[in-house]
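Input record (one chain):
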Amino acid sequence: MSTLTRKSWQDIRRRWARSLFTVATIASAVAGLGLFALPFLMDSAMADRIDQDRLHDIRLFTDDLVLTPDEAAGLRAVPGVEAIDFRTTYQTRLRIGDRREDVLLVGVEDFARQAVNVVQLEQGALPAEGEGLTDPQNRRSGRLRAGAGETLQVEDANGGLHPLRITGAGRTLEFSQIATDEEVVLYVPQATVNALAGAGGFNSIDIRLRDPESAGPATLALQEWLTQHHPEVVFTNLPDSRPTGTWPGEEVFNNFATLFYVGGVLALVSAVALISNTMTTMVAEQRREIAIMKAIGGRRRQVALSFLRTAVMLAVAGSLLGALVGIPFSNWLAGVIGGEFLGIAPGWGIAWPIVIGSFAVGLVGTTLASIPALLRGTAIPVREGLQATTAASGDGISRVLRHVPLPTTAGIGLRNIARRKARAAGTAIQVGLAVGVALGLLALGVTVSSVTADTWDTMDWDLVVSQNSNVPLDDRAGGIIQGIDGVEKSHPLLYNDLRVDGVQYESWGIPADGSLYTPNIESGRWLRPEDGESRAAVAVIGRALAATSGLKVGDILLAESARGPVELEIVGIDGVLMNNATTIFIPLSTFQELLGRTDTNAFWVASRSRDEAAIDSLAARAEDTLGAAGYPVSNEIHYVEKAANLAANNTLTGVLAVIGVPIVAIGLIGLVNLMTMNVIERTREIGVLRSLGARSRDIQGIFRSEALSVAVLGWLLAVPLGWIIGRILVEVVTSVFHFGSVPYSFPASYPPLALLPTLALSWLAILAPLRRASSLRPGDALRYE
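The corresponding structure, as predicted from the sequence alone:
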């Protein structure tokens, strides 16, 4: 071992406390880079889950279709097809006591022999006829908490109730996502769901291909086969072709991943700033030692390499620790996101490229952060270095502080900050960054919640009555709805999908006059009554769709519907973030003509009373009245769905809070580092104060006032910094989702509310250094070297 290397080890051991906190700082930053491992972990988990569940490559949606065994075998023999499962999916209503809940019944022909979208049994027993499995995401979403052995009441196509006994829990990737985001999902025998739906065959064909890349030609071949053998077949929606390597919920996860990357970068920037501050202080404390090394013949390069070795040793230790900590941290976060948003429990995984990369970033970043301090320290002349002291005098500021009427301990603490301005400023920046990130993340959460609430407020309906069987809603149903006691206004709506550039977008056939929707037209115009009367091929599109597709007012929208190609002239761009601002609005009569329909599948209803109990009562009356008239329906209540949407935003805010953990940890480490070093460096000063009669609580008061003053300085910096960070995060979110400009919310109450936890966390962070300072005996302190 060389002399310079031994010196580096001696420096680390002699200043073990500073070395420990420097390593902890580097480790926190490197562990934060584990956020970048999330896409790898989720892709790996989803690839395993896709294989287990045998996720479909294509799903075709038809009306009730019956195939003979020979016909089913013929469809399986279509070139390129590896496996096919036929099933009926039926949306109906579930009675849970007095509460009614939407439910999707997923039929399974034989639970023991499944080929596509396999339902995996997780708990209990496989169901027989009249029984079912509940998806675990039903409980997580709060929609259904029933377990094995409980019996539910399910409505059939005529509104009659039938018991359904739960035998256990099961899930499959395709439908678990629906349970997470939309409604209750139950897996039942095919015969049971057909009996409830009044069906005789199936309405969903789930297909796996030998070559998933051939999904386009295979879809056309399957549709052509069905059309040739059953000319009466009606395809009720566009085929669902899953691109190779994708999975349900991937887009949502990738959008979150962008925020995680921002958090990782902020953690790294925070750590580099603290490391630079630490190395600057370390070199400043050893200016006299540097001068001695130069006086006895040490060259500037040798001196710099000695301290650089110390920095590299600390970097290696901190980076290695951080890379190891980042593995469980990233796996834990993947588990949280997988469970909350995707309904899966990812297995343990290690993203080796991220582990190696984070170690390299920590090593190189720490080394580079120490170079400016080393260059400044080694440039000091020998004479100046020999005369150097650990702390600056801060005489000017100290003289001012002496005339400020403060308690003695507080005055000494503030003067100590003046003597160590650079270190105190660096720590204040760390605290400011930590609190600023917290404020920025909170501002993002408030902005999202505010925009969500504003979006819901653009809709004036209190209730959506939706078709819940093969019986569509016609003019007679509309008359019944308008005649229900408590209805102030109602109008029909036609929900369906259009595909633009290979992506499906929710599309609304909406009356051009008297709509219960308030658009925010950014360019062009809204739909006019004459558009509906003439069945004009026009549309208004959301601004995010306009941004991603490059469309503007006057352009022609080329899309695919369930019946074929569609051309619509864009007459307006809507700024409301409905469906993330991707909705296509079409005159109702035009959309009906495009889809070959004269009926509709939903009605928007406004209640005379705004009272929630009255709206609940109206929803029940509408469902019962229409059911009795032969129109099985379900309903969606405005205030309930708005509250559920805002509750989902709380989950988002919780995930964002996780992003800030490494940054807040780094800020607290910086504060602990400052106070520990202050106690160690001023051990003899503490001895003098104790000899002069200072009590333990006086010593604690000096250091506490110093720490809390630094925390307050950090908080003052955090207020503008938090506003800027929040604004940047909002811009990132709007850019990722193509929202365009959204109103930024930074509540004035947040800064003062943030002061209390800042002081509380700072108080907790300095307990150990304060305990050490107050426990020193005068004799031991005076003898300290």
